[in-house]
Write a structure and sequence with these properties.
CATH class: Alpha Beta
CATH superfamily: SGNH hydrolase
CATH topology: Rossmann fold
CATH architecture: 3-Layer(aba) Sandwich
Helix content: 40-55%
Largest sheet: 5 strands, parallel
Shape: globular
Strand content: 15-25%
Strand order of the largest sheet: 4-1-5-6-7
């Protein structure tokens, strides 16, 4: 049985911007990906709204991904593949960070995963980095956090791809297939989740066969 750990934020948790609740689990992209990959793959989702790569938020404690990834990998071992989709929360206006800062944080997470030796037979797990969908005119409550951060969000894919390549990890740009819904300009709607799940499955499938 192949085991995948998906590590993310509210985009992976399944936040529904229309209801401010949570989508049914089977409508969120990791579950859609899992259904596409088939019954021989177990997908474990560890997602937390507000999670950053490595940075501490002054408004939401305990959101640094770097503090949690190592323990979660050990908890769920063995893990064949770690999928990391973070970066949006790094760009909150109050943190004052750039896409380059976020890419440095992603490098730290990749390094943590590959040093963990939680893969089969005490080997490093494979890693897939996903850059998140671009911010598109964030509105309402999200507009407070992400005012004037759209351009920086479009830079994430370039910098994430570079660190993934240097670290020997896989890379996929979620913005190539999905955009946030119009309700808040940050989170995926049902259509975005439906598009992202199969697209990631298509990237994952050859990685698992290597």
């Amino acid at each position: 049985m192949t085991r995948i750990l998906v590590f993310g934020d509210s985009l992976t948790w399944g936040f529904d911007p229309e209801s401010s609740g949570r989508f049914p689990e089977d409508q969120v992209w990791p579950a859609i990906m899992a259904a596409d990959l088939g019954s021989n793959v177990t997908v474990i989702v560890e997602a937390l709204p507000g999670r950053t790569t490595v940075f501490d938020s002054p408004y939401a404690p305990g959101r640094s991904g770097a503090q949690m990834l190592g323990p979660l990998l050990e908890s769920h071992a063995p893990i064949d593949l770690v999928i990391i989709m973070l970066g949006t929360n790094d760009l909150q206006e109050s943190l004052g960070l750039s896409a380059r800062h976020s890419a440095s944080g992603m490098w730290t997470l990749i390094d943590s995963a590959t040093r963990s030796l939680v893969g089969p037979s005490i080997t490093p797990p494979k890693v897939l980095v996903i850059s998140p969908p671009h911010l598109v005119d964030p509105t309402g409550f999200m507009g407070v956090f992400y005012e004037n951060r759209e351009e920086e969000s479009r830079e994430l894919a370039h910098h994430f791809m570079r660190v993934a390549q240097r670290a020997g990890a896989g890379f996929f740009d979620a913005a190539s297939v999905a955009a946030p819904g119009p309700v808040d300009g940050v989170h995926l709607d049902k259509a975005g989740n439906a598009a992202l799940g199969p697209a990631v499955a298509a990237v994952v499938r050859p990685m698992l066969s290597q």
